[in-house]
Amino acid sequence: MAASSPLSQPPSLLRNSHFTDVVLWLLRQRRRWRVVGESMVPLLQHGVEVLIDPAAYRQCRPQPGDLVVAYHPRQPDLPIVKWVVYVEAEGCFLKGLNESASTDSREYGLVPFTHILGQVVCRFP
What we know:
Layout: H1 19-26, E1 31-34, E2 49-53, E3 67-71, E4 79-88, E5 91-95, H2 105-108, E6 116-124
Antiparallel strand pairs: 1-2, 2-6, 3-4, 3-6, 4-5
């Protein structure tokens, strides 16, 4: 099955929050999320907080290179933070940056678009 989008490069930077991000969070247009685990090291350490945009994919699909929060396909109550490697018609191939500590699409396959909770936009605070 061929990817409809090119493979992305792993993200190496995530900006810090700005005043506007904090205002959007206070207005409930951003959600605060705490990273659990080591799968996104070195970009995101365990315990770091990020803001996500839950409306980012209401009218478009995730793009390769995006950082997203999604529900784990096999444990629907478990949210995960991963990067989008490529996108197909059925869903996204998600991967952790720390391959040895990551459970990701290499194990469970494509993640349906309905499992994507939002795009990671910045560190918080």
